[in-house]
User: Which sequence fits this backbone?
């Protein structure tokens, strides 16, 4: 899994491309990436199944708390796509739960690796596709607020 050019190809690194420019949400996203990296580290290093399960549960618990926080902010902001985004969150949680059930029943290492990759891909896709939509809304709203307050 390691190569000389990229010793940890499964690691995610925070970059400005992932930023939604909302400090509290960016902090949650950074923490989430740390949890995903810890999960994938446990899988790559063939840690005990109980440790992998624990780390998977940490990712899931953090995702649920983060999703709830985002949805509360959406209501506060009057974000027009709140319901659609909440449906995306519910679908992601359902997929997480299915992944958790699947790995609980599997003793095959490949299944665990695949589960870790699925979690990573699901969350990165959500961040890059769905979260960038509310980022654009939030930035536009705050630009309007800032221009009004400067008058």
Assistant:
């Amino acid at each position: 899994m390691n190569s000389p050019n990229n010793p940890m190809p499964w690691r995610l690194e925070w970059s400005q491309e992932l930023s939604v420019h909302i400090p509290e949400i960016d902090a949650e996203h950074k923490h989430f990436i740390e949890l995903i990296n810890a999960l994938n580290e446990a899988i790559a290093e063939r840690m005990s199944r109980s440790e992998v399960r624990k780390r998977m549960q940490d990712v899931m618990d953090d995702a649920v708390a983060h999703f709830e926080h985002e949805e509360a902010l959406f209501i506060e902001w009057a974000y027009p796509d709140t319901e659609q985004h909440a449906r995306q969150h519910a679908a992601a949680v359902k997929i997480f739960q299915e992944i958790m059930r699947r790995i609980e029943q599997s003793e095959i290492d490949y299944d665990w690796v695949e589960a870790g990759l699925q979690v990573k891909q699901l969350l990165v896709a959500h961040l890059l596709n769905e979260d960038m939509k509310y980022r654009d809304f939030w930035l536009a709203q705050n630009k309007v607020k800032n221009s009004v307050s400067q008058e």
Q: What stands out?
A: The chain has one domain: 22-149. Helices lie at 23-44, 49-77, 82-104, 109-149.
